[in-house]
TrEMBL record:
GO molecular function: GTP binding; GTPase activity; magnesium ion binding
Protein source organism: Ornithinimicrobium ciconiae
Record: residues binding GTP: 166-173, 191-195, 212-215, 290-293, 319-321
Domain Obg: 2-159
EC number: 3.6.5.-
Name of the encoding gene: obgE
Subunit: Monomer.
Name of the protein this chain belongs to: GTPase Obg
SUPFAM superfamilies: Obg GTP-binding protein C-terminal domain, Obg GTP-binding protein N-terminal domain, P-loop containing nucleoside triphosphate hydrolases
All residue ranges annotated as the OCT domain in the record: 356-441
PANTHER family recorded: DEVELOPMENTALLY REGULATED GTP-BINDING PROTEIN-RELATED, MITOCHONDRIAL RIBOSOME-ASSOCIATED GTPASE 2
Region feature (Disordered): 60-84, 460-503
Classification via NCBIfam families: Obg_CgtA (TIGR02729), Obg_CgtA_exten (TIGR03595), PRK12296.1 (NF008954), PRK12297.1 (NF008955), PRK12299.1 (NF008956)
Length: 503
């Protein structure tokens, strides 16, 4: 069973931010000590990082769903919640991160290269952080922001200098085993090699890697025989070596025909230009006529060699079994790799351009949508969406605070300009998870009946009664109690006293 996986679909869920808490400080002789609710912790991020010890994506094939730790909620006494731990996923060198639509998000090459695949949500503010001179006693807190949820595709494209390509059972695995210390599986049936095998070769002062690409067949560029999965590993190779079986007994097969078929598949396959690749047909190519230990195969190889050289190709006749012609081939590959490395275009990293947002940028826009039920108005923007997600709609004061923030941002004014009236349907947030309002130009919270939102009239009373005032209030209560007892005694003597058990 093959344990090599070079393409997986990952479902990532970053950690949610912890909720803020609404709390009031309690201390002896201080019944109204003020707000002391702490903030929620930030949710953990998900990062992809290259680990040279990892050579396959098998782990993510069995576990495609990954979730980072969420932040802890805040607590009273101004205690902030702990932040969620970041999740780091190790990937092989040469991993390309793309979307479902084929957009390349990152090309991870080199040990330690990383990409932030999903961002954790912000923690919500507690009522201590929401307090201000105008809002001295907030009775609400903000909820944590949900973490980012994404689906990405990981594709492993082998990093090698030389790619051995050809029909199945052409002797590519045997050639890798004698050129390097690699020990791939070798057998006498087609498609023995199901995964690319890498080997390191040293020739003089040159050191390079050779990749044994699984066998290609006609139609490989269209996906036949897993051809697209195999051709993916040729994209990063500098030199392509055609390994041709000169001892095959299959009808319709000969060295020239095999070469033409594989060349056609290389021309049809288009590598990703954004990775710095060039068309496969334009790369350095060599031909190896293998299995020359068979007399008939050697005669055929010597016969077709002039024709191949006439096409401008460098040709080597070798035998992986008899170890003939390998030394010349090794030094020829080293020279070709050296020249290809020297001619390789170094892609300069793009200069980072910082474009600060304008100070008066509202960061949102209104889109009017006409439906069968009537027009609706969708508010699109990061800030309004985040504010809506952090609002506790079970708290009238929190809803009023949201209305104030949206009004200061200019949402209400833009809605009026777009034609919204009282009772219009307004949506804030992404299309698949939007919050729906029956819009009113002014939203009032029940807390305003007690004063301005975020205030408490009990905290405004700073008068401390004197000892005489306390004594006077005490005697007043005692006199009121005595008067009530006298009134009850008078009613009893007058005969209007009623026993509750007799009613």
């Amino acid at each position: 069973m093959a344990t090599f996986v070079d393409r997986v679909v990952l479902n990532l869920q970053a950690g949610n931010g912890g909720h803020g808490v609404a709390s009031i400080h309690r201390e002896k002789f201080k019944p109204l000590g003020g707000p002391d609710g702490g903030n929620g912790g930030r949710g953990g991020d998900i990062t992809l990082r290259v680990d040279p010890q990892i050579t396959t994506l098998l782990e993510y094939h069995h576990g495609p769903h990954r979730k980072a730790q969420s932040g802890r909620p805040g607590e009273g006494d101004e205690r902030n919640g702990a932040q969620g731990e970041d999740l780091v996923l190790a990937v092989p060198d040469g991993t390309v991160v793309t979307t479902r639509d084929g957009e390349i998000l990152a090309d991870l090459v080199g040990a330690g290269a990383e990409y932030a695949a999903a961002k954790g949500g912000r923690g919500g503010l507690g009522n201590k952080a929401l307090a201000s001179r105008r809002r001295k006693a907030p009775g609400f807190a903000l909820k944590g922001e949900p973490g980012e949820s994404r689906e990405v595709i990981l594709e492993l494209k082998t990093l090698a200098d030389v790619a051995l390509i050809g029909f199945p059972s052409a002797g590519k695995s045997s050639l890798v085993s004698v050129l390097s210390a690699a020990r791939p599986k070798i057998a006498d049936y087609p498609f023995t090699t199901l995964v690319p095998n890498l080997g390191v070769v040293t020739a003089g002062g040159e050191r390079f890697t050779v990749a044994d690409v699984p066998g290609l067949i006609p139609g490989a560029s269209e996906g036949k025989g897993l051809g697209l999965q195999f051709l993916r590993h040729v994209e990063r190779c500098h030199v392509l070596v055609h390994v041709i079986d000169c001892a095959t007994l299959e009808p319709g097969r000969d060295p020239l025909t095999d070469l033409d078929v594989i060349e056609h598949e290389l021309a049809e396959y288009v590598p990703d230009a954004s990775l710095g690749g060039i068309p496969l047909a334009d790369r350095v190519r060599m031909v190896v006529l293998n299995k020359a230990d068979v007399p008939e195969a050697r005669e055929l190889a010597e016969m077709v060699k002039p024709d191949l050289e006439a096409r401008g190709l460098e040709v080597h006749i070798v035998s992986a079994v008899a170890h003939t012609g390998l030394k010349e081939l090794t030094f020829a590959l080293a020279g070709a790799v050296s020249r290809a490395r020297a001619e390789q275009i170094v892609i300069e990293p793009a200069r980072a351009v910082v474009r600060p947002k304008a100070i008066d940028d509202s960061q949102f826009h209104i889109r009017r949508e006409n439906t069968a039920e009537g027009p609706l108005f969708r508010v699109i923007g990061d800030r309004p969406t985040r504010w809506v997600r952090q609002t506790d709609f079970g708290n009238d004061e929190a809803v009023g605070y949201l209305a104030e923030r949206l009004n200061r941002l200019g949402v209400e004014e833009e809605l009026l300009k777009a034609g919204a009236v009282a009772g219009s349907t307004v949506l804030i947030g992404p299309e698949d998870d939007a919050v729906v309002f029956d819009w009113q130009p002014t939203i009032s919270a029940g807390a305003e009946l007690l004063g301005q939102r975020g205030t408490d009239i009990r905290l405004e009373d700073r008068h401390r009664p004197t000892r005489g005032e306390k004594r006077e209030a005490f005697h007043g209560k005692m006199d009121a109690a005595a008067a009530a007892r006298q009134e009850l005694e008078k009613d009893r003597r007058a005969g209007v006293w009623t026993d509750p058990e007799d009613t």
